[in-house]
Structures are given as C-alpha cells and as structure tokens.
Amino acid sequence: MGFVKGIFNAAADPRLFFLLAVISLAILVWKREQVASNSFGYGVLGCLAIFFAFGSFDANFRLIVTKPDNVPIVGLIFMLVFFVWYSLREGVLNDRRIVKGEGPIEKAESDRVWVWPDLVYIELIALIVCSVVLIVWSIVLKAPLEQPANPANTPNPSKAPWYFLGLQEMLVYFDPWLAGVVLPTLIVVGLICIPYIDTNPKGNGYYTFTERKAEITIFLFGFAVLWASLIVLGTFLRGPNWNFFGPFEFWDVHKLEALTNVNLSEYIWVRALGRGLPQAWYVRELFGILLVLFYVGALPALLGKSLFKGYYEKMGAARYYVGVFLFLMMMSLPIKMLCRWLFNLKYVVAIGEFFFNI
Amino acid sequence: MAETKIVAPKEGPLVQFWNWLTETQAWKSIFRHDRPTSDRTRVLVMLSNVFLHLHPVRIRKSGVKLRYTWCMGGLSFFLFLSLTLTGLLLMFYYRPTLEYAYTDIVGLREHVPFGIMREMHRWGAHAMVITVWLHMFRVFMTGSYKPPREFNWSVGVVMLVLTLLLSFTGYLLPWDQLAIWAITVGSNMARATPFLGHEGPGAGLLRLGDVPLIHAADDARFALLGGTFVGEGALLRFYVLHCVGLPLAIAVLMAVHFWRVRKDGGISGPL
Question: Which residue in A80, A106, A167 is closest to B62 by CB distance?
C-alpha cells in the first residue's frame, strides 16, 4: 500500500502533474474516436472514484480532501472530467454524422417546440434537484469557521479562495505584478476577445471537433490544463511555505526545499562570459530585455510569415496580431515553468530597482 | 350492433375543488386565460406572465435538451436568486464591524437550531462559481459565442468576473482566520499593480520632485481595502460591495444578458 501511495505522491509532483495533464489532453484530442465511447468515459470516472475512495483511508489525504471549502473542488474535478469528456463525445458523434452528410444532431432537432410545457417543466425539475442537493449538502457539511481574525498570527500556508489558487500557483513562476495583475487582466480581455478573433464560421450552435480543431484545443489547454489543473494543484498539493506535498504526504512545516534559481543575467554574464555582473541595470539585463522584446514584438510577425501563415491570411492583420499576442501571453506560463524546471531560471529580466521582474 | 358506451371517470373531491377554484373570480383575475392545454393558451401563458415572459413562446427542440445546454446557465441564475434570498436573511443577523462580525457568525452557528442559511449561502456561492464556469464551457464548445452572439459572450465574461468578486468579497465577512488571510493574500496582489501599486513597476516614476505620488497609503491596494491592511475599513467596503454594489451590477448585466439571448435568436442552434 505504501508503494502505491509513493507512486501517487511522485506523480503529483508539479512537473509530472503538469506533464500528465498535457499528455492527457493530447490523448483526449488525438484519440477522440476511442475516447468518445461510453466505456472510456465511465471507466475514467470510475477510476477517479476508486482513487478518492482508496485515498480516504489515508489520514493525510482525508485531512485535505474533507476540509469544508475543498469539498466543492472534489466535486469540480468529477464534473470537469465528465463535461470535458461529454462535450468531446458529442462533438465526435456529430462529426460522424457530418461525414455521412446528415448534419449535426442539433440540425435534426431544429423544429420548434412549445416552451410550456416542454421547457418550463425541465426548469422546474432542475430547480427542485438543485435545491435538494444544496439543502442536503448544507445539512451534511457545516460551513467552516476558524479562530477569530488575528492580524498577528499568519497561518502557514495562507491561501486565497480556491477559485484564485491557479493565480496563486502562478506566483511560483511570476512576480505579483504579472501573476496577480497583468495576466488575470489578459485572461479577462482574452475571453472577451474570443468571438472577435475567431473568424471560423463553422461550428456555430452545435457540438463538433473537426470543424474547430485549433480553437477547441487551445481553449481546453487554457481552461482544463492551465486554469483548472493549477487550481487542483494549488488546493491539494501545496502545503506550508507553498512547498509541494503529495496527496498522501504529511504537511511538514519544516520541509526544506533548496532555492537554487538563477537569473538569466547571471547565466550570461557570470557563467557564459566569465565576468562580473555589470553595474548599470540596462547593461545587466540587456539580453533579457531583448529576449522579451523578441517574444512579444518580433515573434508574432515571424510566426505570421511561417508557421501561422495560414491564420494570418485567413484572419487579417489586426485579428491575427491580437490573437497571437494573447496566445503567446498564455503560453508564457508553461514556457516559464519549463525554464524553471529545466534550467532553474528565476527571472528573464530582473530589475529589482523598479519592481520590474519577468 | 350495440353502441360502445364511454363512461367518464367519476370526479373525485380534489378534481371538483380544482374545477371550482379555477372558475373563481380571484383565480381568473390572476391567470387571465384557460389552462395551457391548447396552442392558443400555451402562447397566452407565456405572454401574460412577467416571469415566464423571459422565455420565448416556442423554442428549438435541441434547446430544451439537457444534452445540449446542461442547464448550467439556468442553474447559475437560480443559484443567484437563492443566494440573494439566503443573503438577505443573513443580513438580519450580521453586523459588519470588528466588534460584532465574528461573534454574529458564531451566534448564527450556536444559537439557531437547525440553522443552514449560512451553509446554503456558502455552498451556493461555491456552486455558482462552478455552474458559471461550466455554462461558459458549454457555450464555448457549442460555438454559441459566434455571430450574432459575440456581444452577449462579452457580457457573460464580465458577469463571470462579477461572480468571482461577489464570492471574494463575501469570503471576508465571517472575519475569521480563513477570511482575513485569504483576502490578505488576494489583495496583496494589488500593491504590485503597474503604476498604481506602490510595489508595482513604474510607480516610482510617478513623483513630483522628491515626493512620490504612489505610496502604501494611496495606491490600488489602499483603495480596495480602505486602509493599509485588512481591517475595519476593508470589512465595511467588502460588505457594502457584497450586499449592494456587486449584486446591483450583476443584476443589470443579467437583464441585458437574458434580453440579448432572446434578441440574438434564442438558444443557439445550427443556422
């Protein structure tokens, strides 16, 4: 039993956890024909249920999963897995119909029905079921109330509300001005921009995958892998001092993790060129600044002429540049994660003088 | 050949009562049409009721399928209504001051037999965040944000932000360790706001001679908390935003959102 738990603890390490999430998404999208079967969907949900049932015998696991505010996230995990699978399945089923020339199932259901009774009754049933679930949930589980607020006593770990834990997890890789302000703003702006960037007229009003491959893959990457899985990571696997703890590991306050991260400037000036760090910040950070300027300034244009040429021609310049900028901003998180894991990179640009660290 | 005789089932007292009730003047003054059993009365029931009038009279068949909509938008709205109701009840017992906030919550827990209003409010709030996410996920996966519904998607994104802010402001109100430290962690981000936070990039550039314009006592975080730390000012600010400001804003946007669902062609479906 200890061996099995050890495997899960090891697999939950942020690096492996993130890698597994990316691989799962790739398999989901690539093998979608097989994924669309009922046996796959219910099999995955069953395995997840067994994992939680098996885990609940472990004291450390039980402690973190049954924390009242964490219970909804356990529900969220199941619902997200189900609905991601379900929407892909509906897409695959529709794609098969489209190939046969039948059109999506929603097309066959486009004749009108009376709202009374057809819709009103469904709403009534949904309302009753939702009320019952909410009331039972409220009776079974007490809302948490800890010790009275005490500004002198900081709990360890201090966590934001669960829906912001993805952002708090980003603090490991970015400074607060990026992780807490700029990137969340860009998430909201990016979401608002989606309908104005996406010029693909297909897939409007029905489930499909093949007609919207890139859009759906990018969205699933942002929503399921970056947003949701980082929330799960931040909630269940981050303990005191925001250190990583496996799901079956004791939250030891004294766990030490060596901080050996190095700035890009030190890599270049000290390790590659064998000199001391220059005094002036603009000389010291020259390479990092150039790299960032290249990433946001030159890379979109280069990609538009090569890899994304098709998109550039289809979308037009304005849509393409806004879209690719938002995409690159989203990808900056996994890129920074990889740099941290592979090269212990701390900051690309580190101008502490102006609180300007990237 | 003997004729088949159709015998009507004998009407029980309940049916008789029902028949009598629906013929009374009071009933007819409220529901100004017959029971919705014919096409005509099914139209009338929708048109003569202000709440049902949110709906169209007829709707595409795929739009009533759980398979297509997952019911998540409707559940988000229902959860908002139940949160408004339970929140109103909680407001009777809760005073947003350092002196009373925590003890009022303890009182709610200790002195109200079978009390579940706080539980329903808290779990309902968590549930609403989840249903809003899943609603948006469904809208994305069915491509329902595509023309002519672009603007309504944008309205929805703003409502997502408001939902998160509503939940975030409510998180502080119990005034326990969980509350103030979660808000401390969250609001600490604001002091790194570029130009507007005193530890944000560029803030140092905003100065008159030697006098910095952006410092700990006037930056973005200060505006959010009404102070330099999570204290009395923050509690009152979050309470007012939670109970009045944000619900009003989201209610207005809901009206726009629902109206635009209708005006943009109803629940989406293939063109």
Answer: A106
What amino acid is encoded at A41 in this protein?
A: G
> Distance (Å) from the C-alpha of residue B149 to the closest C-alpha of chain A?
8
A124 close to B (CB below 8 A): no
Q: Is the pTM value of this prediction over 0.90? A: yes
Q: pLDDT averaged over consecutive 10-residue blocks of chain A (358 residues)?
A: 88 91 95 94 95 92 91 94 96 95 91 91 95 95 93 91 94 94 96 95 94 95 95 93 91 83 90 88 92 95 93 93 96 95 92 87
Region at B70 (left for phi over 0; alpha for psi -120 to 50; beta for the rest): left
Instruction: Judge: domain B68-263, CATH 1.20.810.10.
Output: yes
A102 to chain B, any CB pair closer than 8 A? The answer is no
Burial B128-159 (b: 16+ CB within 10 A, else e): bbbbbbbbbbbbbbbbbbbeebbbbbbbbbbb
Tell me if residue A60 falls in helix, strand or coil: helix
The DSSP annotation for B198-238 comes to: TTSTTGGG-EETTEESS-TTTSHHHHHHTSSSSSHHHHHHH
Q: Rounded to whole angstroms, how far apart are CA atoms A211 and A271?
A: 49
